[in-house]
């Protein structure tokens, strides 16, 4: 049974969508949100692979969006109390890893494969197609969210750790 990471997944996906807004229209918004949520879920499950890891996160908290806001140029000086509250559940490492996955569908496929047999997906089937194999409509809806140059400042923060984690997962599978 997976420990609930929904607060971190929701807040981190929301942060990505606000920092890299979708194209105009309800369909673009929905497609971009699906891609962000898939990327963040995979990143969170990689970052916190066991129920113990996820439980510890729920005790100590993820750290918030402060440095991410600064790097992405997101203005939060006049944030409401509600705005500030959800931002405390943003996980910098998860956001960085999700940015890596959004910028590189091959890496996303490797990450999705790495979490396929994780505790978090035990007994469930998940389709990460919007993340791993985005079609033209997906790409257009999330043009900023998938742009490698725009994502680079966030992705580069913790990309080395993601590569190490994926290398470990590949070695364990072999």
From TrEMBL:
Domain of life: Bacteria
UniProt protein name: Uncharacterized protein
